[in-house]
Amino acid sequence: MTFKRGVTATLLLWSSLSQAQDLNGQLTAFFAQRLAGFSDEVSVQVRTPASMLPGCETPQFSVPGNTRQWGNVSVTARCDNEKRFIQVAVQATGDYVVASQNIPRGGALQPGSVALKRGRLDQLPPRTILDINQVQNAISLRDLVPGQPLQLSMLRQSWRIKAGQRVMVIATGEGFSVNSQGQALNNAAVAQNARVRMTSGQVVSGTVDSDGNILINL
């Protein structure tokens, strides 16, 4: 009797381990697809006990839109009408942007001052920049040293227009377009909002385009 109980317990343990391993593979494939373009090497470790895992062989996975991309993540697993929450640790390896030389505060980032480095993305500080094109001509808000991962909070985009500058304001509506000049009241980068005082004294707001014009949709 004791022998049968031992065999039964062993089979149940083996079944749970096998299920967990299969689920781990499915989750790895799920996150590999989700992180395509960011990481080419993804590994997932299931943290939830085997007794709390979904019962079906191929559950449907989903994560909320605002969920972090890697690190500790909560995944919803659905099996027909059953829903389980699985806690996983997602390891992702890929390229991220670092300073390749000393960059002083207020300095503009040029192609030679930054580089891509390969490493564990899940071990990086939040909002680390992955696209090197995103930092070109940006301005550093602090002193940076070689090898330092660059975060969005460390940079700002270079000003396309500056306060006091004469700018062209282009107002467009259905079937018409009107151009006029004014004076910028604030610094602004491309795609940011700028306030302009017109020659009439009226203050208007619009979006800065790549040519330094202020666009207003009426």
UniProtKB/TrEMBL annotation:
Role this protein plays: Involved in the assembly process of the P-ring formation. It may associate with FlgF on the rod constituting a structure essential for the P-ring assembly or may act as a modulator protein for the P-ring assembly.
Subcellular location: Periplasm
Designated gene of the protein: flgA
InterPro entries associated with the record: Flagellar_FlgA (IPR039246), SAF (IPR013974), SAF_FlgA (IPR017585)
Main localisation: periplasm
Keywords associated with the record: Bacterial flagellum biogenesis, Cell projection, Cilium, Flagellum, Periplasm, Signal
Recorded family membership: Belongs to the FlgA family.
Superkingdom of origin organism: Bacteria
Transmembrane segments: none
SAF domain span: 94-156
Organism of provenance: Leclercia tamurae
Region forming the signal peptide: 1-20
SMART domains linked: SAF (SM00858)
Name used for this protein in its record: Flagella basal body P-ring formation protein FlgA
Entry keyword Ribosomal protein: no
